[in-house]
Amino acid sequence: MNKNFTLLVSFILTFFISETSTAQSWEVYNTQLQLQSRLIYDEIDLLSETVRIGKRGNELSLLSNDFKPAVSLVGTEIYQYLEPWILVKGPNGIGAFHEYGQQVLPLEYEKIQTYFNMLLASKGNEYWLFQRGFNKTTYLGELDEAKITNTGLIIIRKGDEYSMPLSTNPDKTFELLSDNDGEFVLAKEPSGFGLINREGDYVLDPIIETLQHTHGNFYYGFNQDQYLLIEGNDIQSNIRYNSFHKITFENDIMLEYIHGKLRRVMEDDGILLDDVGMTKVEKVGKDLYNVYFRDEKVGLLGKKGWLVQPMLEVEEIKNGSEGLFPASSNGAFGFVNSAGTWVIPAQYAETTLFSENFAAYRNTHNWGVINSSGEQVANASWEEIKPFQKGLAIAKANGKYFLLNTFGTTLNTEGFDDIYRTTDGFFMVERSGKSGLLDSEAKEVIPTEFEGLRRERKDFVIVQKDGLTGVINETGEIIIPVAYEKILVDWANDKIFTKNSFTPTVIQIIEEPSKKNKRGA
C-alpha cells in the first residue's frame, strides 16, 4: 500500500475519532429487558408518549417511531414543551414547532405564549400571532400588552385602549378587557360593564355600573340601585340574585345587610345562610366560614350548610375530618363534633386533623399523639408528626426521622435524615446523603447506599451509585447493572433507554513491508 495513502487514512481516522470521541451510545430494550436497538445520541428526551427528542452535538432532532432523526429542530435545546407545541431555543431566541414536525415560528423571539391552535410571540413590545387553522403568522404591531385568554381570545392593549384583533370587529376599542379563571372576559365600555364569550360576542350587554369576577363563571355587580349576582352563559348570562339591600364582597366573603344589620351569608349565585343575630363572618378555608352571633355562639358553615352547629365557649372552629373538628377555647385547642359538643376538651396549644382515628397535638414546643377518645398514645416528645396512613406516621426528633406506629412505638431505632412516603405505602429514606427504601412495615428492602433512588413502579427502582445508574428490584436483585450514565423509561411504549459513553474503535491501517524470498543457505 502507498505510504502517502496510509498517512492520509491515518489522519482522517484520527480526525474522525477526535470529533466523535464524546458521542453517547443508547441501548433500547423492551420492558422484558430484550435488546431492541442501539442509538448514537448525546441526549434523548421523552416529552410525551409520541414526542421524542434526540441531540447529537449541536443538532437537535424530532425522532421518528424507530428513533431516527425525522425533523431538525434547528435550535440547541428544548425550551419548553406545551402540548402540542415544542418551544426550541437557539442562539438568537425562541421558536416553535408543532409536535408533528412543522416549524411555525423561527428561533428569534423573546417570549411565546401558547394555546392549542395558536401562538403569541413577542420581541420587546412587538407582537406576532400564529394561527394554525390558517397556517400563517400575523404581525400585530407595537403594543403595551397582549395575551391569550384561557378561552383562546386575543386581548391587546395600546395605551388605555383594549381590543380583540380576532373578533368580528377587530377595530372596536374598550376601556377594559380582563381575563379570569372563568370562561368569560370582563369588558368595559363608556356605557358600563359586560361579559364576552369565547367567540368574542356579548352575553351580558355592557350596561352594568360595576362588575367584578368572584369564582368560576360568577360575577358580582351593582346597577340601578341593585346588587346583582350574575352567572355567565355562552348565549345569555343570567342574573341569579338581585337585591336593593347592600351586598358586600371583601376578602372573598360575600355578605348581605338588611337595614344596616348583617343578615345573610351569600354564595356565588344566591343565599348560603339567612339568619338573624349574626355579628361577623370569617373565612377559614375554601367555602368554609366561622359565623359569629350576638349570643356569643360560633358555628362552622360549609357549602351545604352547618358543618358544626353554633355553640358556646368556642372562639374558632377549623375544618375537620372523621367527624371531629379542631376548635379553640380560651386560647387552647380541642375537638368538637358536628352537633357543637366538646368531644376532647380544649387543652392543647395546637392540633392536626384526625387520620385513621389518630391526631397529633402540641404542648408548648413538642408534639404527641392522641386517639379519637382523647387518650394519649405518644408523649409530646416529637418535633413534628405527620398524619397516620396505613397505620404509620412519620415523626421527627432531634433532627432525625422515624416511623411511628399506632402504639406510639418507633419501628426504626436509628433515625433517618428524611423519610418520604410513596403512593403505595413504601418509604424512601435518606441518611448522610444516601438513599434507600423501606417496605410498608418499615423493613429495609434496599440499603441506604445510593446517591439517588426513584421507584418507577413495583420491583423497578432506578438507582444511582458512584455516578452511575442502574435498576434493582425490591429484594435487592439487579435488573439492569449499575453501569450506565442515565436510564429513561417509557412505559406507554414498552421501552427502556440506557445511556453509556463509548470510545470509537481506533482503526489503524499499516502497510506491511514487502517480503522477499531468501535464497537457501
What does this protein look like?
- There is one protein chain.
- The protein is mainly beta.
- The protein has a four-stranded antiparallel sheet with strand order 2-1-54-53, with no helix packed on it.
- The chain contains one helix and 54 strands.
- It starts with a helix and ends in a 20-residue tail after the last strand.
- Among the domains are: 136 residues, no CATH class; 98 residues, no CATH class; 101 residues, no CATH class.
- β46 and β47 form a beta hairpin.
- Pfam families: WG_beta_rep.
- This is WG containing repeat-containing protein.
List descriptors.
mainly beta; disordered C terminus; 4-stranded antiparallel β-sheet; disordered N terminus; 1 helix; 54 strands; 56% strand; 521 residues
From the alpha carbons, calculate the radius of gyration and give it in angstroms: 34 Å
Q: Could you say which structural class the secondary elements and strand pairing correspond to?
A: mainly beta
Q: Tell me the strand order in the biggest sheet.
A: 2-1-54-53
Number of strands: 54
Mean pLDDT: 91
Largest sheet: 4 strands, antiparallel
Terminal Cα separation, in Å? 31 Å
Name the beta content range: over 45%
In which range does the helix fraction lie?
under 10%
pLDDT below 50 for ≥5 consecutive residues: which ranges? Answer: 1-21, 502-509, 515-521
Tally of separate helices? 1
Overall outline: flat
